[in-house]
Amino acid sequence: MFLHPLGLIRVKNKVLEHAPAEPAAAEADKDPYLVALGERVRRLRAMRGMTRKALARGAGVSERHLANLESGLGNASILVLLQIAQAFHCALAELVGDVTTSDPEWLLIRELLENRSEHDLRQARVALADMFNDNPAGHGKDRLRQIALIGLRGAGKSTLGRMLADDLGYAFVELSAEIERVAGCGILEIHSLYGPSAYRRYERRALEEALQLYPEMVLATPGGLVSEPATMNLMLSHCYSVWVTAAPEDHMARVMAQGDFRPMAGSKEAMADLKRILASREPFYSKADYVCSTSQQSLADCFAELRAHVRRLAGLAL
What whole-number distance in Å separates Cα of residue 20 and Cα of residue 266? Predict the structure, then answer.
Protein backbone atom coordinates (compact mmCIF):
# COMPACT_ATOMS: atom_id res chain seq x y z
CA MET A 1 0.00 0.00 0.00
CA PHE A 2 1.29 3.46 -0.80
CA LEU A 3 0.07 7.05 -0.87
CA HIS A 4 -0.18 8.41 -4.36
CA PRO A 5 0.96 12.05 -4.79
CA LEU A 6 -2.60 13.01 -5.84
CA GLY A 7 -4.04 11.58 -2.62
CA LEU A 8 -5.02 8.14 -3.97
CA ILE A 9 -4.41 5.14 -1.72
CA ARG A 10 -3.87 2.03 -3.81
CA VAL A 11 -3.47 -1.63 -2.98
CA LYS A 12 -2.51 -3.79 -5.93
CA ASN A 13 -3.60 -1.01 -8.29
CA LYS A 14 -7.10 -0.81 -6.82
CA VAL A 15 -8.41 2.46 -5.52
CA LEU A 16 -9.55 2.21 -1.91
CA GLU A 17 -9.90 5.85 -1.03
CA HIS A 18 -9.08 9.21 -2.54
CA ALA A 19 -8.78 12.80 -1.46
CA PRO A 20 -11.10 15.46 -2.87
CA ALA A 21 -10.22 16.36 -6.45
CA GLU A 22 -10.21 20.06 -5.64
CA PRO A 23 -9.46 21.64 -2.25
CA ALA A 24 -12.02 24.07 -0.90
CA ALA A 25 -9.54 26.91 -1.48
CA ALA A 26 -9.47 26.13 -5.20
CA GLU A 27 -13.27 26.30 -5.34
CA ALA A 28 -13.20 29.69 -3.65
CA ASP A 29 -10.63 30.98 -6.13
CA LYS A 30 -12.77 30.22 -9.18
CA ASP A 31 -13.80 33.21 -11.25
CA PRO A 32 -17.60 33.68 -11.01
CA TYR A 33 -17.90 34.36 -14.73
CA LEU A 34 -16.02 31.18 -15.64
CA VAL A 35 -18.21 29.21 -13.24
CA ALA A 36 -21.34 30.66 -14.90
CA LEU A 37 -19.88 29.91 -18.34
CA GLY A 38 -19.29 26.31 -17.32
CA GLU A 39 -22.86 26.02 -16.10
CA ARG A 40 -24.17 27.34 -19.41
CA VAL A 41 -22.11 24.78 -21.33
CA ARG A 42 -23.49 21.98 -19.16
CA ARG A 43 -27.04 23.32 -19.53
CA LEU A 44 -26.80 23.58 -23.31
CA ARG A 45 -25.28 20.10 -23.48
CA ALA A 46 -28.09 18.70 -21.34
CA MET A 47 -30.77 20.46 -23.40
CA ARG A 48 -29.39 18.83 -26.52
CA GLY A 49 -28.84 15.43 -24.88
CA MET A 50 -25.15 15.44 -25.79
CA THR A 51 -22.48 13.58 -23.90
CA ARG A 52 -19.27 15.39 -23.11
CA LYS A 53 -17.48 13.07 -25.52
CA ALA A 54 -19.92 13.92 -28.33
CA LEU A 55 -19.55 17.65 -27.69
CA ALA A 56 -15.78 17.42 -27.55
CA ARG A 57 -15.77 15.55 -30.85
CA GLY A 58 -18.17 18.00 -32.50
CA ALA A 59 -16.25 21.04 -31.28
CA GLY A 60 -12.81 19.61 -32.01
CA VAL A 61 -11.54 20.04 -28.45
CA SER A 62 -10.31 17.53 -25.91
CA GLU A 63 -12.64 16.09 -23.29
CA ARG A 64 -10.23 17.24 -20.61
CA HIS A 65 -10.35 20.81 -21.89
CA LEU A 66 -14.14 20.64 -21.96
CA ALA A 67 -14.26 19.19 -18.44
CA ASN A 68 -12.14 22.07 -17.17
CA LEU A 69 -14.42 24.54 -18.92
CA GLU A 70 -17.56 23.00 -17.41
CA SER A 71 -16.03 22.96 -13.93
CA GLY A 72 -15.24 26.67 -14.08
CA LEU A 73 -11.49 26.18 -14.32
CA GLY A 74 -10.95 26.52 -18.04
CA ASN A 75 -10.32 29.96 -19.51
CA ALA A 76 -11.07 29.09 -23.13
CA SER A 77 -10.08 31.26 -26.06
CA ILE A 78 -12.75 32.94 -28.14
CA LEU A 79 -12.06 30.52 -30.99
CA VAL A 80 -12.66 27.51 -28.74
CA LEU A 81 -15.92 29.04 -27.53
CA LEU A 82 -16.93 29.64 -31.14
CA GLN A 83 -16.22 25.98 -31.97
CA ILE A 84 -18.36 24.86 -29.02
CA ALA A 85 -21.18 27.20 -30.06
CA GLN A 86 -21.06 25.78 -33.57
CA ALA A 87 -21.22 22.25 -32.19
CA PHE A 88 -24.34 23.30 -30.27
CA HIS A 89 -25.72 25.04 -33.38
CA CYS A 90 -26.33 28.15 -31.34
CA ALA A 91 -25.15 31.76 -31.41
CA LEU A 92 -21.94 32.56 -29.58
CA ALA A 93 -23.94 35.11 -27.57
CA GLU A 94 -26.04 32.30 -26.12
CA LEU A 95 -22.92 30.56 -24.87
CA VAL A 96 -21.20 33.57 -23.33
CA GLY A 97 -24.33 34.80 -21.60
CA ASP A 98 -26.02 37.50 -23.67
CA VAL A 99 -29.13 38.81 -21.89
CA THR A 100 -31.32 37.84 -24.86
CA THR A 101 -30.58 34.17 -24.17
CA SER A 102 -31.56 34.17 -20.51
CA ASP A 103 -35.20 33.28 -21.09
CA PRO A 104 -36.95 30.84 -23.46
CA GLU A 105 -39.21 33.61 -24.77
CA TRP A 106 -36.18 35.69 -25.75
CA LEU A 107 -34.81 32.73 -27.69
CA LEU A 108 -38.11 32.09 -29.45
CA ILE A 109 -38.49 35.76 -30.38
CA ARG A 110 -34.92 35.88 -31.63
CA GLU A 111 -35.55 32.82 -33.78
CA LEU A 112 -38.58 34.51 -35.35
CA LEU A 113 -36.51 37.59 -36.21
CA GLU A 114 -33.38 35.84 -37.37
CA ASN A 115 -32.49 36.35 -41.06
CA ARG A 116 -35.35 38.80 -41.59
CA SER A 117 -34.86 41.76 -43.89
CA GLU A 118 -34.14 45.25 -42.58
CA HIS A 119 -37.65 46.25 -43.61
CA ASP A 120 -39.22 43.36 -41.69
CA LEU A 121 -37.14 44.08 -38.59
CA ARG A 122 -38.18 47.73 -38.67
CA GLN A 123 -41.84 46.72 -38.89
CA ALA A 124 -41.37 44.35 -35.95
CA ARG A 125 -39.69 47.08 -33.87
CA VAL A 126 -42.43 49.59 -34.63
CA ALA A 127 -45.13 47.03 -33.81
CA LEU A 128 -43.47 46.20 -30.48
CA ALA A 129 -43.02 49.88 -29.69
CA ASP A 130 -46.72 50.47 -30.35
CA MET A 131 -47.66 47.47 -28.22
CA PHE A 132 -45.68 48.61 -25.20
CA ASN A 133 -45.74 52.36 -25.77
CA ASP A 134 -47.08 54.37 -22.83
CA ASN A 135 -47.34 57.51 -24.94
CA PRO A 136 -50.85 57.53 -26.47
CA ALA A 137 -50.06 60.78 -28.32
CA GLY A 138 -47.06 59.33 -30.08
CA HIS A 139 -48.83 58.78 -33.41
CA GLY A 140 -49.78 60.75 -36.51
CA LYS A 141 -49.73 64.53 -36.47
CA ASP A 142 -49.47 64.70 -32.68
CA ARG A 143 -46.03 63.08 -32.95
CA LEU A 144 -44.85 66.18 -34.81
CA ARG A 145 -45.27 68.22 -31.64
CA GLN A 146 -41.91 66.91 -30.48
CA ILE A 147 -39.28 66.84 -33.21
CA ALA A 148 -35.83 65.42 -32.53
CA LEU A 149 -32.82 66.21 -34.70
CA ILE A 150 -30.15 63.52 -34.64
CA GLY A 151 -26.77 63.26 -36.32
CA LEU A 152 -23.08 63.85 -35.83
CA ARG A 153 -21.74 67.04 -34.36
CA GLY A 154 -21.28 69.72 -37.00
CA ALA A 155 -24.18 68.56 -39.18
CA GLY A 156 -26.23 71.68 -38.40
CA LYS A 157 -28.74 70.37 -35.83
CA SER A 158 -28.63 73.44 -33.59
CA THR A 159 -28.83 75.96 -36.42
CA LEU A 160 -31.69 74.23 -38.22
CA GLY A 161 -33.36 73.36 -34.93
CA ARG A 162 -33.58 76.97 -33.79
CA MET A 163 -34.92 78.07 -37.16
CA LEU A 164 -37.54 75.32 -37.23
CA ALA A 165 -38.60 75.97 -33.63
CA ASP A 166 -39.05 79.70 -34.35
CA ASP A 167 -41.07 78.92 -37.44
CA LEU A 168 -43.39 76.50 -35.65
CA GLY A 169 -43.61 78.47 -32.41
CA TYR A 170 -42.07 75.57 -30.47
CA ALA A 171 -39.45 75.62 -27.74
CA PHE A 172 -35.93 74.89 -28.93
CA VAL A 173 -34.11 72.50 -26.58
CA GLU A 174 -30.46 71.47 -26.60
CA LEU A 175 -30.34 68.08 -24.91
CA SER A 176 -26.68 68.68 -23.97
CA ALA A 177 -27.77 71.67 -21.87
CA GLU A 178 -30.49 69.57 -20.26
CA ILE A 179 -27.93 66.89 -19.40
CA GLU A 180 -25.74 69.50 -17.69
CA ARG A 181 -28.76 70.82 -15.79
CA VAL A 182 -29.68 67.34 -14.57
CA ALA A 183 -26.10 66.44 -13.65
CA GLY A 184 -25.24 69.80 -12.12
CA CYS A 185 -21.97 70.02 -14.02
CA GLY A 186 -20.57 70.22 -17.55
CA ILE A 187 -20.41 67.40 -20.09
CA LEU A 188 -16.61 67.10 -19.84
CA GLU A 189 -16.86 66.97 -16.05
CA ILE A 190 -19.45 64.20 -16.21
CA HIS A 191 -17.14 62.10 -18.35
CA SER A 192 -14.00 62.82 -16.31
CA LEU A 193 -15.61 62.45 -12.87
CA TYR A 194 -18.18 59.74 -13.40
CA GLY A 195 -17.42 58.06 -16.72
CA PRO A 196 -19.40 57.26 -19.88
CA SER A 197 -21.93 54.99 -18.16
CA ALA A 198 -23.00 57.81 -15.85
CA TYR A 199 -23.22 60.17 -18.82
CA ARG A 200 -25.61 57.80 -20.60
CA ARG A 201 -27.79 57.65 -17.48
CA TYR A 202 -27.93 61.46 -17.29
CA GLU A 203 -28.69 61.58 -21.01
CA ARG A 204 -31.64 59.22 -20.63
CA ARG A 205 -32.97 61.13 -17.61
CA ALA A 206 -32.57 64.47 -19.39
CA LEU A 207 -34.52 63.16 -22.39
CA GLU A 208 -37.30 61.84 -20.16
CA GLU A 209 -37.59 65.21 -18.42
CA ALA A 210 -37.50 67.18 -21.68
CA LEU A 211 -40.35 65.08 -23.09
CA GLN A 212 -42.41 65.95 -20.00
CA LEU A 213 -41.42 69.62 -19.74
CA TYR A 214 -41.80 70.62 -23.40
CA PRO A 215 -44.99 69.28 -25.02
CA GLU A 216 -44.04 71.22 -28.18
CA MET A 217 -40.35 71.36 -28.94
CA VAL A 218 -37.58 70.92 -31.45
CA LEU A 219 -34.84 68.92 -29.75
CA ALA A 220 -31.20 68.90 -30.85
CA THR A 221 -29.60 65.72 -29.54
CA PRO A 222 -25.93 64.81 -28.94
CA GLY A 223 -24.37 62.76 -31.74
CA GLY A 224 -23.82 59.71 -29.54
CA LEU A 225 -27.40 59.38 -28.30
CA VAL A 226 -28.00 56.58 -30.79
CA SER A 227 -25.33 54.42 -29.14
CA GLU A 228 -27.69 53.69 -26.22
CA PRO A 229 -30.61 51.61 -27.57
CA ALA A 230 -32.95 52.32 -24.63
CA THR A 231 -32.53 56.08 -25.02
CA MET A 232 -32.91 55.90 -28.78
CA ASN A 233 -36.08 53.82 -28.49
CA LEU A 234 -37.51 56.40 -26.11
CA MET A 235 -36.74 59.17 -28.58
CA LEU A 236 -38.11 57.27 -31.58
CA SER A 237 -41.36 56.39 -29.81
CA HIS A 238 -42.12 59.96 -28.69
CA CYS A 239 -40.59 62.21 -31.34
CA TYR A 240 -40.70 62.71 -35.07
CA SER A 241 -37.02 62.22 -35.85
CA VAL A 242 -34.89 63.96 -38.45
CA TRP A 243 -31.37 62.84 -39.33
CA VAL A 244 -29.36 65.93 -40.15
CA THR A 245 -26.48 64.62 -42.19
CA ALA A 246 -23.41 66.08 -43.88
CA ALA A 247 -20.21 64.95 -45.55
CA PRO A 248 -17.37 64.11 -43.10
CA GLU A 249 -15.33 67.02 -44.43
CA ASP A 250 -18.18 69.40 -43.63
CA HIS A 251 -18.54 67.99 -40.13
CA MET A 252 -14.85 68.58 -39.42
CA ALA A 253 -14.71 72.04 -40.99
CA ARG A 254 -17.80 73.30 -39.15
CA VAL A 255 -16.63 72.11 -35.73
CA MET A 256 -13.24 73.72 -36.24
CA ALA A 257 -14.86 76.92 -37.53
CA GLN A 258 -16.64 77.14 -34.18
CA GLY A 259 -13.21 77.35 -32.57
CA ASP A 260 -13.09 73.78 -31.31
CA PHE A 261 -9.81 72.18 -32.37
CA ARG A 262 -10.28 69.03 -30.31
CA PRO A 263 -11.13 66.92 -33.36
CA MET A 264 -7.52 67.39 -34.52
CA ALA A 265 -5.86 67.20 -31.11
CA GLY A 266 -3.35 64.41 -30.70
CA SER A 267 -4.41 62.53 -33.81
CA LYS A 268 -3.11 62.65 -37.36
CA GLU A 269 -5.93 60.36 -38.38
CA ALA A 270 -8.79 62.51 -37.14
CA MET A 271 -10.65 62.35 -40.44
CA ALA A 272 -10.33 58.56 -40.60
CA ASP A 273 -11.62 58.34 -37.03
CA LEU A 274 -14.55 60.61 -37.84
CA LYS A 275 -15.46 58.49 -40.86
CA ARG A 276 -15.37 55.33 -38.72
CA ILE A 277 -17.63 56.92 -36.12
CA LEU A 278 -20.04 58.05 -38.82
CA ALA A 279 -20.03 54.61 -40.47
CA SER A 280 -20.74 52.87 -37.16
CA ARG A 281 -23.65 55.20 -36.34
CA GLU A 282 -25.21 55.50 -39.80
CA PRO A 283 -27.34 52.33 -39.40
CA PHE A 284 -28.89 53.91 -36.28
CA TYR A 285 -29.22 57.43 -37.68
CA SER A 286 -30.98 55.94 -40.68
CA LYS A 287 -33.88 54.85 -38.44
CA ALA A 288 -35.01 58.48 -38.42
CA ASP A 289 -38.32 59.38 -40.04
CA TYR A 290 -36.71 61.90 -42.40
CA VAL A 291 -33.23 62.72 -43.68
CA CYS A 292 -32.03 66.29 -44.23
CA SER A 293 -28.64 66.75 -45.88
CA THR A 294 -26.79 69.99 -45.19
CA SER A 295 -23.97 69.40 -47.66
CA GLN A 296 -23.87 70.81 -51.18
CA GLN A 297 -26.73 73.23 -50.58
CA SER A 298 -27.20 76.48 -48.74
CA LEU A 299 -28.57 76.80 -45.22
CA ALA A 300 -31.62 78.61 -46.62
CA ASP A 301 -32.34 75.75 -49.03
CA CYS A 302 -31.87 73.13 -46.28
CA PHE A 303 -34.27 74.94 -43.99
CA ALA A 304 -36.84 75.53 -46.73
CA GLU A 305 -36.81 71.81 -47.51
CA LEU A 306 -37.13 70.78 -43.85
CA ARG A 307 -39.79 73.39 -43.11
CA ALA A 308 -41.92 72.37 -46.08
CA HIS A 309 -41.67 68.68 -45.14
CA VAL A 310 -42.70 69.21 -41.50
CA ARG A 311 -45.51 71.65 -42.30
CA ARG A 312 -46.89 69.37 -44.98
CA LEU A 313 -47.03 66.42 -42.56
CA ALA A 314 -48.54 68.57 -39.80
CA GLY A 315 -51.20 69.99 -42.14
CA LEU A 316 -49.91 73.55 -41.69
CA ALA A 317 -49.79 76.28 -44.29
CA LEU A 318 -46.59 76.39 -46.31
Answer: 57
